[in-house]
Amino acid sequence: MNATDLSNRLKYAQWILERNLAWIAQAEVKVAVVISIDVGMVSAIAAAYTTAVSKSAWAILLSVVFGITIVAALVSAAVVVKPKTDGPPTSFLFFGKVAKMQRADYAQALQMASEETLLQDLCEQIHRNAEIALIKHEWIRLAILWSFVSAIFWMAAISQLVRGT
Q1: What is the pLDDT of residue 91?
Q2: How many Å apart are CA 66 and CA 76, to the nearest integer?
Q3: Which candidate, 60, 116, 121, 144, has a CA 20 to 30 Å from the CA of 33?
Q4: What are phi and psi of 40, to 5 degrees?
Q5: Which residues contact 10 (CB under 8 A, 6 or more apart)?
Q6: For residue 140, which of 20, 45, 16, 25 has the smallest C-alpha distance?
Q7: CA 119 to CA 115: how far, in whole Å?
């Protein structure tokens, strides 16, 4: 592989890595919205409970099912925000591996690395970050699904509780 081809591959690999990091960030933005809505629903049902004079069996049952499904949504959301710190065995890029090296050792190793070594490192980073993005998006999909399911029970429970005021 000639120097121009290698340089182009390095640039392309950097672009791919940036895309993967953007996909990870998108999942984390979505989880903030899901958590906000879920906490709002929990707060609303708590307020409805405190103002309801009587609570029917249906209101209690629907609230319990809501509670179970909203916990599933929040647990799924928590998995999304949990940091994934296990990167490739060695890396010039992954913060966990870089931080474990002595500063001078890292600087020397990076300065001495060939473009082939840097491309290999980027390829490993791309793959690991693609795995992380996939995991986060699978879990945010579940969090959204559980939130929608819980919203059905939330609306039914709220309507029962409002009747009891």
Answers
A1: 86
A2: 15
A3: 60
A4: -60, -40
A5: 115, 118, 119, 122
A6: 25
A7: 6
Which two three-digit tokens encode residue 83? Answer: 């940091």
How many other β-carbons are positioned within 10 Å of the β-carbon of residue 22? Answer: 10
The model's pTM is 0.86
Structure tokens at 4: 């121009």
- SS3 for the chain is CCHHHHHHHHHHHHHHHHHHHHHHHHHHHHHHHHHHHHHHHHHHHHHHHHHCCCCCHHHHHHHHHHHHHHHHHHHHHHHHHCCCCCCCCCCCCCHHHHHHCCHHHHHHHHHHCCHHHHHHHHHHHHHHHHHHHHHHHHHHHHHHHHHHHHHHHHHHHHHHHHHCC
- pLDDT tens digits for 3-59? 789 899 999 999 999 999 999 999 999 999 999 999 999 999 999 999 988 899 999
